[in-house]
Design goal:
Oligomer: homodimer
Mean pLDDT of chain A: 81
Radius of gyration of chain A: 31 Å
CATH class of the largest domain in chain A: Mainly Alpha
Shape of chain A: elongated
Low-confidence stretches of chain A: 1-33, 661-677
CATH topology of the largest domain in chain A: Amino acid/polyamine transporter I
Number of helices of chain A: 23
Largest sheet of chain A: 5 strands, parallel
Largest interface: A-B, 109 and 109 residues
Strand content of chain A: 5-15%
Structural class of chain A: alpha/beta
Helix content of chain A: 55-70%
CATH architecture of the largest domain in chain A: Up-down Bundle
Distance between the termini of chain A: 45 Å
Number of strands of chain A: 8
Strand order of the largest sheet of chain A: 5-4-3-6-7
CATH superfamily of the largest domain in chain A: Amino acid/polyamine transporter I
Amino acid sequence: MTQRVYVLAVTEEFSPKRWLIGEPLESGRLDEQLLPKRIALPVFASDALSSVAYGPQEMFLVLTIGGLAVLAHAPWVALGVICLIAIVVAGSFQLVRAYPSGGGDYEVAHRNLGPRAGLVVGAALLIDYVLTVAVSVAAGVDNVISALPALAPWRVELAVALIALLAIANLRGVRESGAAFALPTYVFIASVVLLVGTGLVRTALGDPPVAASSAYAVEADPITQAGLALLLLRAFASGCSALTGIEAISNGVPAFRRPKVRNARITLLLLGGVSISLFAGITALGVISRLHYAQDPCDLIGYADCATRPQPSVIAQLATAVFGEGAPLVYLVTASTALVLLLAANTAFNGFPLLGSVLAANGFAPRSLANRGDRLVHSNGVILLALAAALLVLVLRADVNALIQLYVIGVFVSFSFGQIGMTVHWLRLRRTRRREFRMLPLAISVTSALCTGAVLLIVTVTKFTHGAWAVFVLGPILWWLMLGIHRYYARVRAEIAADRTTVFGAKGDHAIVLVEELTKPTLKALDYAIAARHATLEGVHADVDPEATMRLERQWKAEGVRVPLRIVPSPYRDVAEPVVEHIRRHRAEHGPEVVTVYTPKLVGLRWWEHLLHNRRSTRIRQRLTLEHGVTLALVPWRLHPDLPVGPDPRPLPGDARRGQPARPVVRQQHRPARERR
Amino acid sequence: MTQRVYVLAVTEEFSPKRWLIGEPLESGRLDEQLLPKRIALPVFASDALSSVAYGPQEMFLVLTIGGLAVLAHAPWVALGVICLIAIVVAGSFQLVRAYPSGGGDYEVAHRNLGPRAGLVVGAALLIDYVLTVAVSVAAGVDNVISALPALAPWRVELAVALIALLAIANLRGVRESGAAFALPTYVFIASVVLLVGTGLVRTALGDPPVAASSAYAVEADPITQAGLALLLLRAFASGCSALTGIEAISNGVPAFRRPKVRNARITLLLLGGVSISLFAGITALGVISRLHYAQDPCDLIGYADCATRPQPSVIAQLATAVFGEGAPLVYLVTASTALVLLLAANTAFNGFPLLGSVLAANGFAPRSLANRGDRLVHSNGVILLALAAALLVLVLRADVNALIQLYVIGVFVSFSFGQIGMTVHWLRLRRTRRREFRMLPLAISVTSALCTGAVLLIVTVTKFTHGAWAVFVLGPILWWLMLGIHRYYARVRAEIAADRTTVFGAKGDHAIVLVEELTKPTLKALDYAIAARHATLEGVHADVDPEATMRLERQWKAEGVRVPLRIVPSPYRDVAEPVVEHIRRHRAEHGPEVVTVYTPKLVGLRWWEHLLHNRRSTRIRQRLTLEHGVTLALVPWRLHPDLPVGPDPRPLPGDARRGQPARPVVRQQHRPARERR
């Protein structure tokens, strides 16, 4: 088993995850060209399309509350959702050209409405990535259970297990390979089209499909006009969950084949078209087959042992109604649905680090998130995402309906901020470059800003009491946190900025070699210290254990080291403090010389080795870094030099969407350097 | 809020615990003299005495299974346990003198039966510390619930919360202050004595107390002779849980006041006497009051709503029987019992790191565990212990009876190995120093070795199927792990041992300053590099971002840095690899010179700062440590120099039992150093 340099990255900071992960997957060696449309569509659309699996379901669920009378309004509500999709697509369509760098709504808001507005979008999106994972996985489990009701008792465990699976896969570094995405997505589209098609044809032939749930009556309390309006709004708000994921493309432009913008836009149109038709089709079938879907199956009069028996998902019900109980096609539909939902969840694992790096580049997230090629960082992102999603799933018992309540808000925050930003963008264009300005784009942006804004309002109002409040608590906290980080960086930058006032001019050059035992690493450190020809040089040993000290002194003589050995007392079995005292004393006597402290450092390659090494010397160094005029010289001694070392060949989550060139698997070649003065 | 150097220890490796912990407690400044007997007794005895709280209970529980006929045998079983206590005390009594260093059974086995045997004891004890926490906390919760039945539904949560509480307390650094221990322990002893006394007096006066549970019949299947024998053995085995904790004293000799051994032995005798009398008294009362205690209250015929209503602990039942329902004394007894059980759990938090450091000193545990004054290490031990115990409590639903099944084994493994070791010790003495050899000690050791061995066998046989098997799985794994660590250290020691063959003699001296931006820290690094007067010196910048490079070059000229700046290309936005390439190239051209790489290092004092810094440069350093002939020179730049720095004043878990001198709260004073050649 060859261990590469990324193992080192871990030895710096232990993470049990390394356990789970081990060797890079072969998939890490997949070809890494930019994505052609036919591949980009599935990669970016799985999120948006999969939401068609729960969008209509949530809509029906809310309508069913009002009883059959209200259910009749389904088509109109659906129409509203469809128009909204069209509008949002149109909005992103322009956004993609105006800001092709992949910053998406965040960038637009940031550039046009100021960093704080951008940050709102950033926070909203971060939260939404978490929810994408939670909702998609929960919905996926729903469909699995619809096919295999036996699994019902393990709903939550199943969901958590799937999240863990996705996390591990991404930690190991699965490139979002087109192939892996294309097949399931296209199968999903095809099977749903087939489903809808067959259903409509049967209806045309006068044999409309009938959902099993149509047999169950729903008792509903008489409802006022106002109540009806509110209910329809809620249904609409829930249906809007079908819009989640459309933003993915505007965040992934860099990953497209040239001409990037053009391809991205075409893909966007395709995506819009497909999701509209799927949404319309499923709703139509639902209405035709008189499907009833209740939040709690026990509200369905006549539904046997509702307490234990789970309610099949809408897709599953329709498939059964159209193809007949237990037909293989039913399993195809549910399986492909579940699979696409998983892929959708996976996209979040790729989007999260990507957004993170954009935020970091603007100084709103730990700068390390911006480091390309830093696996550990991305891994932490993946783990963070997984934990948050798992927590959500646990708390809300993997209940899609409960999760959806939190979901849509984030998306529409980013949509509306993005479109408001676009509006500002056009207006500025109008002022600055009159020639390029056109009226239509502005109009589109304004409308879609208004619509998305209105929907955001509706969603908030109708869902706030159903759990959406949580988002309005977490969002601001996140926002505030990111601002704080930004402030911190600003302060540090100011602190370390080069200025004329601070004068450097260290003089004198004393060197100390910290000696614990006289081992090879220590001898090497001594040797290097000598080679560096410092003005003065001494070995220093803290007298923690008199016996050990004696032994050392004897050895020191025996080896004939040409450097004086100084023993400093350590009454408290502590090394750092006595050495610090010694250094201070030296600087007190010899004036403020630069003191270079040499310490040997054992370097192991295996992730667990650091658990057995260097704790102490690291602490000592930590302490020494606080002394004035001290430089720490680490002389590495590499253990088991047989293990190979090289750059980490594994792809990073989000690389594909970022359109990153792949790091080479083999070592880099010698490249000439140019010198400047 | 002043942050001291220990915060740094944390910035090295982030641990969320720091969050929970914050500032050291005032208790950290308690006086730190060695312990006089009257204080040592409670400190070391709480574990042993508290086990009297569940020992008899477990015995009664098992006997009750056999029905009233079998219950009659209680006195004889108790007698067996009492004799065993006496024997074990006698055994430890000699052990304390023979091995006063505090290694206890582990040391005896290690020295006399070889490291592997010692390791068995070590593993057994480690597991037992975990069980001490789990059992004591669970039993404590039992007594709390007996007093306040309303808390019954939260049994598990309560237990976990208590464990967390103990962990946090120990992380913050509570010294095992005599005072804190003395009061509850003595109150416990007093209250139980009062309980027993009153009970016996009332019996003498012809008004014996009657336990409420005596009213409930127990149905028991007719039982064979063999069955009876086995049942009695099981009862005995369960009763033996009263012996846990006696080993504490032999592990804590160094903490006693001089004459250490004598005081330790006297304390040991006191301890033995007290626990025997308490055990005897409680059993007697149990028999007199015809107490019935079933594993599942529903086995008690006539026990109303047994499903929901918890069964009061034996102590609680006796207290009620003696003092009457709801008498204040009842609450005193149960409260002091609960408190002592908590203290017992706390002792494990002190013993665990102590044993860890002994194991580490022998190279069987990560060496860092041996570092005195290394808070982080101890903290990790505490957290590990807490997590393990919490897991156990969760899995076994804080069910004392279930936990007890795992418990006794470890104790008796260490007892028997310890006593076998002692036997060997005496026999060797007989061979080597005939004059000092006496027959009696040998006899004692042999008997107690045989008895404890026999009990170990009984315990294993009677409990294996009841869950004890888990111990026989975990133990060996732990054992094997520790052996592996030992082997690893041995290999490394061999690898780095100084020998005549390896020749050092590095020559040449080239220095590189890694430059990212031209900030104060970088300028300081340049300045130090210049001060060190290396043979050759250059600044190196990896061209990750052309713009930034341009800017740097302009600034470089502007600042008029007297060092050539070399730009190395970085096609993969990576810094480490290009620099490595550059160094190799240099060494290829100029021969194998020592290359010193200067990097500025930002040093923050707050635990969260490292999250925002240095990730990348740390990675780069990590990579550079793998290159031949490279020395890393860190030039620290301290942020916000206003925060104070000093040694960590807080006491470490286990210090009290280790008899450690306290680290000073104020800075150490200047101490003269002696020079040697």
